[in-house]
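User: My collaborator sent over this chain with a note saying "see what the structure looks like." That's all I know about it. Can you take a look?
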Amino acid sequence: MAFSSISAFAGITYFDFGSTADPGGAIFSDIDGVIWTNRGPLGTYLVDETEFQNSIQILRRLVEKTQSRNVVFITNHTAVARNLKAFDEFEYRVRELFGNISQILPNVLYLACLHHPAAQNEHLRVACDCRKPKPGLITFATNYLNIDFSNSIIIGDKISDIALASQVCISNSYLVFNEESFTGLNVEAEEIYLSKLAGINFTAVRSLQQLVEKEIKF
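Assistant: Without extra context I'll predict from the sequence alone. Here is the result:
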């Protein structure tokens, strides 16, 4: 496994869990709200292990369905910027959670923007190009893995994730709603509302499991 600190490309923190430059499509996945329940800035440290492993198995099925050659996790992580956790704690936790999933998923790359414009940690108080919806994380992944956008998908739980897909011209984008999102609206109403709000086309799903069950065309 390879690891680079925040001195990496454009200040991006990345963990390479056994990836190789393999031209082909990718699954770009947000983490909080998609892979595990969003528990705020400390979510990475409060993960339910069963929930995490279940999500990884669902991603494996999605890889098989889409024939994706790469899995790229992309996240805005602010716990270090807020001085809630030290960088070493963050590194240890990511390695602990994701270190063995290369046995399940192909070409795994974990990319994180640790910056925040109002960060308490002055070293991370940066107006960067990698905080979603800015495209820096995906630009890095593309250069690193030679990814084909025409055969790629993005999964997220926020409009910023969908806006990112639009910026880099990935046409297959999926918004995972959590239980607190738009209470009282059905999925179709939510999709129409949010599509008008963002001016972007996407598909709304309730979970990764529901996404696996949908037809995906490139």
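A starting point for your reply to your collaborator: The beta strands are 2-4, 13-17, 26-29, 70-76, 108-113, 153-156, 172-176, 203-205.
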